[in-house]
Amino acid sequence: MSNQKVVLVTGASSGNGQATARLLSQAGYKVFGTSRDPSSAEPMPDLEMVALDVRDDDSVAACVKAVSDRVGHLDVLVNNAGYELAGALEEVSLDEAKAQFETNFFGVVRMVKAVLPLMRRQEGGQIINISSLAGLSPVPFMGIYSASKFALEGYTEALRLEVQPLNIHVSQIEAGFLKTPMPNHRQIATEQIGAYELWRRRALDAIRAYEEEGPGPELVAETVLRIVASSRPRLRYVIGQQAKRVSRLRRFLPEGVFQNGSRSTFRLDGRE
Ligand SMILES: NC(=O)c1ccc[n+]([C@@H]2O[C@H](COP(=O)([O-])OP(=O)(O)OC[C@H]3O[C@@H](n4cnc5c(N)ncnc54)[C@H](OP(=O)(O)O)[C@@H]3O)[C@@H](O)[C@H]2O)c1
What we know:
Rossmann fold, about 15% strand
Protein backbone atom coordinates (compact mmCIF):
# COMPACT_ATOMS: atom_id res chain seq x y z
CA MET A 1 0.00 0.00 0.00
CA SER A 2 1.46 3.43 -0.92
CA ASN A 3 1.53 6.54 1.26
CA GLN A 4 -0.25 8.56 -1.43
CA LYS A 5 -3.37 10.26 0.01
CA VAL A 6 -6.56 8.78 -1.45
CA VAL A 7 -9.41 11.16 -2.32
CA LEU A 8 -12.95 10.32 -3.43
CA VAL A 9 -14.82 13.11 -5.24
CA THR A 10 -18.54 12.59 -5.87
CA GLY A 11 -20.00 14.02 -9.07
CA ALA A 12 -16.68 14.25 -10.92
CA SER A 13 -18.14 14.08 -14.43
CA SER A 14 -18.81 17.81 -14.63
CA GLY A 15 -18.21 21.29 -13.18
CA ASN A 16 -16.75 21.62 -9.69
CA GLY A 17 -16.25 17.89 -9.14
CA GLN A 18 -14.44 17.41 -12.43
CA ALA A 19 -12.16 20.43 -11.86
CA THR A 20 -11.45 19.25 -8.30
CA ALA A 21 -10.68 15.67 -9.30
CA ARG A 22 -8.39 16.91 -12.09
CA LEU A 23 -6.48 19.39 -9.89
CA LEU A 24 -6.00 16.95 -7.01
CA SER A 25 -4.84 14.26 -9.39
CA GLN A 26 -2.34 16.70 -10.97
CA ALA A 27 -1.15 17.59 -7.46
CA GLY A 28 -0.21 13.95 -6.86
CA TYR A 29 -3.17 12.60 -4.89
CA LYS A 30 -4.70 9.25 -5.80
CA VAL A 31 -8.15 10.37 -6.92
CA PHE A 32 -11.33 8.41 -7.50
CA GLY A 33 -14.16 10.32 -9.16
CA THR A 34 -17.77 9.25 -9.50
CA SER A 35 -20.60 9.46 -11.99
CA ARG A 36 -23.94 7.72 -12.31
CA ASP A 37 -22.64 6.68 -15.73
CA PRO A 38 -18.83 6.47 -15.61
CA SER A 39 -18.63 5.18 -19.20
CA SER A 40 -19.95 8.51 -20.53
CA ALA A 41 -17.64 10.68 -18.38
CA GLU A 42 -14.72 12.39 -20.11
CA PRO A 43 -11.62 10.25 -19.34
CA MET A 44 -8.95 11.98 -17.25
CA PRO A 45 -5.39 10.66 -16.89
CA ASP A 46 -4.65 8.96 -13.54
CA LEU A 47 -8.25 9.30 -12.43
CA GLU A 48 -10.39 6.25 -11.81
CA MET A 49 -14.13 6.74 -12.26
CA VAL A 50 -16.49 4.68 -10.10
CA ALA A 51 -20.26 4.35 -10.50
CA LEU A 52 -22.27 6.17 -7.85
CA ASP A 53 -25.82 7.34 -7.38
CA VAL A 54 -25.92 9.09 -4.01
CA ARG A 55 -29.67 8.45 -3.78
CA ASP A 56 -29.13 4.70 -3.58
CA ASP A 57 -27.82 2.89 -0.45
CA ASP A 58 -26.47 -0.09 -2.43
CA SER A 59 -24.71 2.15 -4.95
CA VAL A 60 -23.07 4.13 -2.11
CA ALA A 61 -21.91 0.93 -0.35
CA ALA A 62 -20.56 -0.52 -3.61
CA CYS A 63 -18.67 2.70 -4.46
CA VAL A 64 -16.93 2.93 -1.07
CA LYS A 65 -16.16 -0.82 -1.17
CA ALA A 66 -14.68 -0.47 -4.67
CA VAL A 67 -12.26 2.23 -3.47
CA SER A 68 -11.40 0.37 -0.29
CA ASP A 69 -10.84 -2.94 -2.15
CA ARG A 70 -8.67 -1.18 -4.70
CA VAL A 71 -6.38 0.83 -2.37
CA GLY A 72 -7.25 -0.27 1.17
CA HIS A 73 -8.02 3.13 2.63
CA LEU A 74 -9.68 6.49 2.03
CA ASP A 75 -8.22 9.72 3.35
CA VAL A 76 -10.56 12.37 1.95
CA LEU A 77 -14.20 12.38 0.86
CA VAL A 78 -15.40 15.39 -1.15
CA ASN A 79 -19.20 15.48 -1.20
CA ASN A 80 -19.86 17.48 -4.32
CA ALA A 81 -22.70 15.71 -6.23
CA GLY A 82 -25.80 17.85 -6.49
CA TYR A 83 -28.30 19.64 -8.70
CA GLU A 84 -30.62 22.64 -8.57
CA LEU A 85 -34.39 22.57 -8.49
CA ALA A 86 -35.98 25.84 -9.60
CA GLY A 87 -39.53 27.10 -9.18
CA ALA A 88 -41.66 29.03 -6.73
CA LEU A 89 -42.08 27.18 -3.45
CA GLU A 90 -45.81 26.87 -4.14
CA GLU A 91 -45.09 25.34 -7.55
CA VAL A 92 -42.65 22.68 -6.31
CA SER A 93 -44.37 19.36 -5.60
CA LEU A 94 -43.51 17.41 -2.46
CA ASP A 95 -41.99 14.67 -4.62
CA GLU A 96 -39.75 17.20 -6.39
CA ALA A 97 -38.72 18.69 -3.03
CA LYS A 98 -37.98 15.25 -1.55
CA ALA A 99 -35.95 14.30 -4.63
CA GLN A 100 -33.85 17.46 -4.21
CA PHE A 101 -33.10 16.56 -0.58
CA GLU A 102 -32.47 12.93 -1.51
CA THR A 103 -29.49 14.02 -3.63
CA ASN A 104 -28.20 17.24 -2.06
CA PHE A 105 -28.71 16.37 1.61
CA PHE A 106 -29.36 12.65 2.17
CA GLY A 107 -26.78 11.86 -0.54
CA VAL A 108 -24.16 13.42 1.73
CA VAL A 109 -25.59 11.70 4.81
CA ARG A 110 -25.36 8.33 3.00
CA MET A 111 -21.77 8.92 1.88
CA VAL A 112 -20.65 10.06 5.32
CA LYS A 113 -22.21 7.03 7.03
CA ALA A 114 -20.50 4.77 4.49
CA VAL A 115 -16.99 6.23 4.93
CA LEU A 116 -16.90 6.87 8.68
CA PRO A 117 -16.33 3.20 9.68
CA LEU A 118 -13.32 3.19 7.34
CA MET A 119 -11.99 6.50 8.66
CA ARG A 120 -12.51 5.41 12.28
CA ARG A 121 -10.55 2.20 11.60
CA GLN A 122 -7.77 4.28 10.02
CA GLU A 123 -7.95 6.65 13.01
CA GLY A 124 -8.23 9.67 10.77
CA GLY A 125 -9.70 11.21 7.66
CA GLN A 126 -11.22 14.29 6.12
CA ILE A 127 -14.66 15.18 4.78
CA ILE A 128 -15.27 18.27 2.65
CA ASN A 129 -18.85 19.17 1.80
CA ILE A 130 -19.58 21.43 -1.16
CA SER A 131 -22.30 23.62 0.23
CA SER A 132 -23.18 26.98 -1.34
CA LEU A 133 -23.78 30.63 -0.60
CA ALA A 134 -27.42 29.53 -1.03
CA GLY A 135 -26.91 27.64 2.27
CA LEU A 136 -26.19 30.93 4.04
CA SER A 137 -28.47 33.30 2.14
CA PRO A 138 -31.51 31.80 0.39
CA VAL A 139 -32.09 32.21 -3.33
CA PRO A 140 -35.74 32.95 -4.26
CA PHE A 141 -37.26 30.57 -6.80
CA MET A 142 -34.62 28.08 -5.70
CA GLY A 143 -36.00 27.82 -2.19
CA ILE A 144 -35.85 24.03 -1.90
CA TYR A 145 -32.29 23.99 -3.27
CA SER A 146 -31.39 26.63 -0.68
CA ALA A 147 -33.14 24.64 2.06
CA SER A 148 -31.14 21.52 1.12
CA LYS A 149 -27.92 23.54 1.50
CA PHE A 150 -29.09 25.14 4.78
CA ALA A 151 -29.71 21.59 6.06
CA LEU A 152 -26.24 20.60 4.89
CA GLU A 153 -24.72 23.54 6.77
CA GLY A 154 -26.24 22.44 10.10
CA TYR A 155 -25.37 18.81 9.48
CA THR A 156 -21.74 19.63 8.61
CA GLU A 157 -21.26 21.80 11.67
CA ALA A 158 -22.59 19.08 14.00
CA LEU A 159 -20.57 16.39 12.21
CA ARG A 160 -17.37 18.38 12.70
CA LEU A 161 -18.00 18.55 16.45
CA GLU A 162 -18.72 14.82 16.69
CA VAL A 163 -15.82 13.43 14.70
CA GLN A 164 -13.02 15.87 15.51
CA PRO A 165 -12.08 13.80 18.61
CA LEU A 166 -11.65 10.84 16.24
CA ASN A 167 -9.11 12.81 14.17
CA ILE A 168 -11.58 13.26 11.31
CA HIS A 169 -11.62 16.81 9.95
CA VAL A 170 -14.80 18.29 8.47
CA SER A 171 -15.06 21.43 6.35
CA GLN A 172 -17.53 23.02 3.97
CA ILE A 173 -17.22 25.39 1.06
CA GLU A 174 -19.66 28.17 0.20
CA ALA A 175 -19.31 29.67 -3.27
CA GLY A 176 -21.67 32.15 -4.91
CA PHE A 177 -22.90 31.66 -8.48
CA LEU A 178 -20.30 29.93 -10.63
CA LYS A 179 -19.93 29.36 -14.33
CA THR A 180 -20.33 25.56 -14.55
CA PRO A 181 -22.64 23.28 -16.59
CA MET A 182 -25.05 23.20 -13.61
CA PRO A 183 -27.79 25.31 -15.31
CA ASN A 184 -27.96 22.67 -18.07
CA HIS A 185 -28.83 20.07 -15.42
CA ARG A 186 -31.29 22.31 -13.55
CA GLN A 187 -34.73 20.86 -12.92
CA ILE A 188 -37.76 23.11 -13.12
CA ALA A 189 -40.89 22.45 -11.08
CA THR A 190 -43.51 20.84 -13.30
CA GLU A 191 -46.37 22.98 -12.05
CA GLN A 192 -46.33 26.62 -13.16
CA ILE A 193 -48.61 29.17 -11.53
CA GLY A 194 -49.34 32.33 -13.53
CA ALA A 195 -49.05 34.68 -10.55
CA TYR A 196 -45.34 33.84 -10.22
CA GLU A 197 -44.55 33.96 -13.95
CA LEU A 198 -43.06 37.48 -14.10
CA TRP A 199 -41.14 37.16 -10.81
CA ARG A 200 -39.85 33.66 -11.55
CA ARG A 201 -38.59 34.81 -14.93
CA ARG A 202 -36.94 37.91 -13.50
CA ALA A 203 -35.21 35.97 -10.71
CA LEU A 204 -34.06 33.13 -12.99
CA ASP A 205 -32.78 35.64 -15.59
CA ALA A 206 -30.82 37.42 -12.86
CA ILE A 207 -29.40 34.09 -11.64
CA ARG A 208 -28.42 33.16 -15.19
CA ALA A 209 -26.55 36.46 -15.57
CA TYR A 210 -24.71 36.00 -12.23
CA GLU A 211 -23.69 32.49 -13.30
CA GLU A 212 -22.41 33.74 -16.66
CA GLU A 213 -20.30 36.42 -14.92
CA GLY A 214 -19.21 34.12 -12.09
CA PRO A 215 -15.84 32.49 -11.55
CA GLY A 216 -15.23 29.03 -13.00
CA PRO A 217 -15.10 25.72 -11.11
CA GLU A 218 -11.33 26.12 -10.61
CA LEU A 219 -12.20 28.34 -7.62
CA VAL A 220 -13.77 25.36 -5.83
CA ALA A 221 -10.99 22.99 -6.97
CA GLU A 222 -8.24 25.29 -5.66
CA THR A 223 -10.04 25.64 -2.34
CA VAL A 224 -10.43 21.88 -1.94
CA LEU A 225 -6.72 21.47 -2.67
CA ARG A 226 -5.92 24.09 -0.03
CA ILE A 227 -8.16 22.37 2.54
CA VAL A 228 -6.72 18.92 1.85
CA ALA A 229 -3.19 20.27 2.22
CA SER A 230 -3.98 22.21 5.41
CA SER A 231 -2.84 20.83 8.76
CA ARG A 232 -5.69 22.65 10.58
CA PRO A 233 -8.63 22.93 8.16
CA ARG A 234 -11.34 25.39 9.14
CA LEU A 235 -15.07 24.63 9.27
CA ARG A 236 -16.10 27.14 6.64
CA TYR A 237 -14.52 28.45 3.42
CA VAL A 238 -16.57 31.27 1.88
CA ILE A 239 -15.03 31.77 -1.55
CA GLY A 240 -15.28 34.34 -4.32
CA GLN A 241 -16.10 38.03 -4.01
CA GLN A 242 -19.88 37.62 -4.22
CA ALA A 243 -20.08 34.99 -1.45
CA LYS A 244 -17.72 36.95 0.79
CA ARG A 245 -19.70 40.18 0.34
CA VAL A 246 -23.15 38.62 0.81
CA SER A 247 -22.18 36.53 3.84
CA ARG A 248 -20.65 39.60 5.48
CA LEU A 249 -23.76 41.72 4.76
CA ARG A 250 -26.01 38.98 6.12
CA ARG A 251 -24.09 38.95 9.38
CA PHE A 252 -24.01 42.69 9.89
CA LEU A 253 -27.08 44.23 8.23
CA PRO A 254 -30.49 44.39 9.93
CA GLU A 255 -32.77 41.65 8.52
CA GLY A 256 -35.13 44.05 6.72
CA VAL A 257 -32.28 45.86 4.98
CA PHE A 258 -30.72 42.56 3.93
CA GLN A 259 -34.08 41.32 2.53
CA ASN A 260 -34.44 44.52 0.50
CA GLY A 261 -30.99 43.88 -0.89
CA SER A 262 -31.99 40.32 -1.88
CA ARG A 263 -35.16 41.66 -3.54
CA SER A 264 -33.06 43.96 -5.65
CA THR A 265 -30.39 41.29 -6.37
CA PHE A 266 -33.04 38.95 -7.79
CA ARG A 267 -35.06 41.76 -9.43
CA LEU A 268 -38.10 41.21 -7.21
CA ASP A 269 -38.36 44.89 -6.28
CA GLY A 270 -40.42 45.83 -9.33
CA ARG A 271 -37.65 47.98 -10.83
CA GLU A 272 -36.57 47.47 -14.43
N1 LIG B 1 -22.55 26.01 -10.06
C1 LIG B 1 -22.74 26.83 -9.05
O1 LIG B 1 -23.08 28.02 -9.23
C2 LIG B 1 -22.54 26.34 -7.64
C3 LIG B 1 -22.35 27.27 -6.62
C4 LIG B 1 -22.16 26.83 -5.32
C5 LIG B 1 -22.18 25.47 -5.05
N2 LIG B 1 -22.38 24.58 -6.05
C6 LIG B 1 -22.41 23.15 -5.70
O2 LIG B 1 -21.36 22.47 -6.38
C7 LIG B 1 -21.74 21.11 -6.60
C8 LIG B 1 -21.47 20.73 -8.04
O3 LIG B 1 -22.14 21.64 -8.88
P1 LIG B 1 -21.68 21.91 -10.38
O4 LIG B 1 -21.92 23.34 -10.64
O5 LIG B 1 -20.37 21.33 -10.65
O6 LIG B 1 -22.83 21.09 -11.17
P2 LIG B 1 -22.78 20.11 -12.43
O7 LIG B 1 -21.79 20.61 -13.41
O8 LIG B 1 -24.19 19.96 -12.84
O9 LIG B 1 -22.23 18.73 -11.82
C9 LIG B 1 -23.03 18.00 -10.94
C10 LIG B 1 -22.37 16.66 -10.66
O10 LIG B 1 -23.19 15.96 -9.71
C11 LIG B 1 -23.38 14.64 -10.15
N3 LIG B 1 -24.68 14.12 -9.69
C12 LIG B 1 -25.91 14.66 -9.85
N4 LIG B 1 -26.85 13.87 -9.31
C13 LIG B 1 -26.18 12.81 -8.76
C14 LIG B 1 -26.59 11.65 -8.06
N5 LIG B 1 -27.88 11.39 -7.78
N6 LIG B 1 -25.64 10.76 -7.65
C15 LIG B 1 -24.33 11.00 -7.91
N7 LIG B 1 -23.89 12.07 -8.60
C16 LIG B 1 -24.81 12.97 -9.02
C17 LIG B 1 -23.28 14.68 -11.66
O11 LIG B 1 -22.78 13.42 -12.11
P3 LIG B 1 -23.51 12.40 -13.11
O12 LIG B 1 -24.63 13.14 -13.78
O13 LIG B 1 -22.41 11.99 -14.05
O14 LIG B 1 -23.95 11.30 -12.21
C18 LIG B 1 -22.24 15.78 -11.89
O15 LIG B 1 -20.95 15.24 -11.95
C19 LIG B 1 -23.22 20.99 -6.19
O16 LIG B 1 -23.31 20.43 -4.91
C20 LIG B 1 -23.67 22.45 -6.17
O17 LIG B 1 -24.75 22.65 -5.29
C21 LIG B 1 -22.54 24.98 -7.34
